């Protein structure tokens, strides 16, 4: 047995789970009229109703005991203080320093990193202003109208999804186009729609070695040169964000056009760094700063609120409850707000790349399930497709519903309908519909009793399906920053409980290496014996199809 499953707190949770499995939330609500009032939290502009969860006081208390037994508070403080908690890469984990608006020093290798962080923010602010005011022009003197932001993974999802979520705050003077995939359709499609004299390319790559991003940037550079720009003009049209300044300058980016980041910022935690430059360009620096401020507020809540009133901690523990004691395989995110539709994809990388691990910090195989599958999309669309599986599928799929109470420029009927569907779904999932009620509905339908029972069985909804509901006044940059930081800390807490290193990604790294090796095979620069038989024949087919005619 692992250290985790040997804990008395774990055993106790197993026992409580066994007893709770026989209880229905419907009955808990009926028995305790104050349940909804008791099971809610407010922090950083977010209201959370967690009463529709399959937990009672015993379960919650035991979950908080587990967190304490796993030394959550000590490890949390170790992260914030810059200890090298990313033990496989020997790195500190300090995305929180990027939004540290306090006077607190953050020391890495004996040096306070805060002056560099502030200087980079100033550089982002000044650059954003010069682009928006038309002072940073292209080489022919025309102001920048289009920004092509190239990056992938954490160097793409955060900037794209935050920009999309805050669409009502978009500035008029520039339009930002994001390109991630190496599939040439995308970059060619974007480049065909912009004028090279009025375009700025922002290339974002922490490592400056990601194949997709390098290739897309090369293609953009070729397009620029072919369109009429010269090598000297590149400085006016290409900037980069990277921790690898050497590689960026070798690539041809002028040193003054490189926005730094640091190895203590993980890719999937990097939107708060200069990787967020496209957000600032799309929305204005004040709105980018608002995101950081919201995240800082959540950091303060996470570090200071008692565990029982701590939103990320509570969410993490509920996740542990379902994943480890109810065999939940996945967790669904359901933003009821069109502009927030990208959030599930954002949290998908954050969570699955962080906790998609099967080995503990000590290199031991786990004997318990770890990170769940994260998925979801905007409501109400999912109600007409995949919600079926959440309502009547054979497993438990905990859901996070989220809804802004106010939305810009929308008529009240649409918004009321959106809200009613959101709340209605949480209610249906919790209550379900009993066999008896379905059977009664089928009276007077002219059915014999067997048929009535058969149909009633299909229509029965077990209910007892857990959900959290988040409400916020409106989706401001600050609220969004807090929401995203909340999920970051939730993932951190789960990593602590599961004793994982949530900050490396060796599986993804292997994919990068093999992708480059296969490319060499496709380009005839690697022996076929380097590949397994299946891959050899796939390469051969591709080469045959692309051979010169
Ligand atoms: O920013 P880059 O170095 O180009 O990396 C881009 C992405 O590469 C990998 O896929 C990592 O797993 C991601 O976390 C990272 O964000």
From TrEMBL:
- Per the UniProt entry, the Enzyme Commission number(s) are 5.3.1.9
Q: Where is the active site?
A: 353 (proton donor), 384, 512
Keyword Methyltransferase (UniProt): no
Return the SUPFAM superfamilies for the record: SIS domain
What biological-process terms (Gene Ontology) are attached? Answer: gluconeogenesis; glucose 6-phosphate metabolic process; glycolytic process
- Gene3D superfamilies reported in the protein's UniProt record: 1.10.1390.10, Glucose-6-phosphate isomerase like protein, domain 1 (3.40.50.10490)
Main subcellular location of this protein, as a coarse class:
cytoplasm
Give the Gene Ontology MF terms in alphabetical order.
Answer: carbohydrate derivative binding; glucose-6-phosphate isomerase activity; monosaccharide binding
**Gene Ontology CC: one annotated term:** cytosol
* Class of this enzyme: isomerase
Name the chemical reaction catalysed here. alpha-D-glucose 6-phosphate = beta-D-fructose 6-phosphate
User: What protein am I looking at?
Assistant: Glucose-6-phosphate isomerase
Q: Which species is this UniProt entry from?
A: Alteromonas australica
The organism that produces this protein has a lineage beginning with: Bacteria, Pseudomonadati, Pseudomonadota, Gammaproteobacteria, Alteromonadales
